[in-house]
Write a structure and sequence with these properties.
alpha+beta; five-stranded parallel beta sheet; Rossmann fold
């Protein structure tokens, strides 16, 4: 015997740019095995439907592939079965990573059929026994997820001003394939005047000191902002080079954020060196660097310095009343007489000489974190991934605060 269900399901926003309600309806109660039943999916016009079933203890299988037909007829098998529907736009790629646009659910129901309705009053905090997954649409229309299903939603940090939309999908914790209800929230984010704006890469972001979905509160911009009594807009982006940051500074979201900045930190260039070292075979236990490799690194440092000069000039122009602190690069490798460590240290020193010249020519103070980290890498750098530890981030903030105090002629 098989029980069947009726339910209302909500489409995953990452696939549509908005929540789509899909009403899946069919017979309920005890149904004889072998009976032919019909299920109906109702959704906005123009979508395609894929129906699937999952017998208890068995893998899911598709019983009707994607088509414009929102109805399926199925022969009931003995036992408990979940039936569901997935929807998509015509021609859209298949939904991957197990993320369904609509969830199916088996309801043990007897008597007359009924429809489950989304509770639109549901708050964003999680109810007992439920887990939540949140999607976000940013002001330029890009959807992203803020993490997997979890019992706690820890919030998110807006990366730039504008209109955002949050969509929270909630389901029972014990039913990973159960119906997910959705609630939407629209949020308008305005630039906080007089903020510390952090420009950089994963170091400014605080990589591996949080969930890596949002900048870490342990990242040095937040620590420095606290010391300077300023709100913080952390625009650090993992993996970025000077070329990425220079391009971003031409966009409206960056110019708008910088226009009211009171303090700007710039910490960029580490990925320039890493990418160049990888391109020239200088990473890992390789042979000693070749003349070609060393020439390539010199060229990469020259490009980094040129782009860094343009970055500082752009920040001066877009944030004319802001103080600016330029950070140099720390050596992530602990002291060692080994040749690879010495070669890496020589490259970092060469890059820092170029950064020093940029700071001097641009009339901005330089935060010398190379000196602060030197000999302290086992405390200040995470083993294996070159990013600062919590203590290392504190050092970055302390060095920045001292530079600002020296520039202002006051005690840090």
């Amino acid at each position: 015997m098989a029980a069947s269900c009726m339910g209302m399901f909500s489409a995953a926003p990452a696939a549509f740019g908005r929540v789509v309600r899909v009403v899946l309806s069919g017979p309920s109660g005890d149904i004889p095995a072998g009976a032919r039943i019909q299920w109906q999916a109702d959704a906005p016009v123009g979508l395609q439907y894929q129906f699937w079933v999952r017998p208890a203890g068995s893998p899911e299988r598709v019983i009707q592939p994607f088509s414009s037909r929102g109805r399926v007829t199925w022969t009931v098998a003995a036992g408990r079965t979940t039936i569901g529907v997935t929807v998509r736009r015509p021609g859209a790629p298949p939904i991957g990573s197990g993320e369904r646009v609509a969830y199916g659910m088996l309801v043990q129901a007897r008597g007359t059929a009924k429809t489950m309705v989304v509770d639109t009053r549901m708050p964003l905090d999680v109810r007992t026994g439920t887990v939540k997954r949140v999607w976000l649409e940013n002001p330029v229309g890009e959807w992203t997820t803020l993490g997997p299903f979890a019992s706690v939603f820890r919030g998110w940090t807006p990366r730039y001003p504008g209109a955002y939309e949050l969509v929270a999908m909630t389901r029972a914790n014990h039913a990973p394939n159960g119906m997910a209800t959705a609630v939407r929230r629209k949020i308008s984010v305005r630039t906080v005047g007089g903020a510390l704006v952090a420009l950089g890469d994963s170091i400014s972001f605080g990589w591996d000191l949080g969930n890596n979905w949002n900048p870490s509160p342990n990242a040095f911009p937040y620590l420095l902002g606290r010391a300077e009594h300023l709100p913080v807009d952390d625009l650090g982006y993992p993996g970025w080079t000077t070329a990425n940051l220079l391009a971003a500074l031409k966009t409206a979201r960056y110019t708008h954020t910088l226009s009211t900045a009171k303090l700007v930190t710039i910490d960029i260039g580490s990925n320039n060196l890493l990418q160049a070292a990888g391109a020239y075979g200088l990473l890992g236990p390789a042979a000693p660097p070749t003349a070609v490799g060393l020439a390539g690194m010199v060229g990469a440092i020259s490009t980094m310095a040129r782009q860094l000069r343009e970055i500082v000039a752009d920040v001066h122009r877009e944030a004319p009343h802001a103080r600016i602190v330029l950070y140099n690069l720390y050596d992530p490798l602990p002291p060692s007489p080994a040749a690879p460590n010495q070669d890496a240290r020589a490259v970092v020193r060469l890059a820092n000489q170029a950064i020093f010249r940029v700071a001097r020519a641009s009339h901005v103070p330089l935060a010398n974190v190379y000196a602060a980290f030197n000999g302290q890498q086992r405390v200040d750098v995470q083993p294996g991934n070159f990013h600062p530890t919590v203590h290392g981030q504190e050092v970055l903030a302390t060095v920045g605060a001292k530079v600002l105090a020296d520039a202002a002629g006051r005690a840090p």
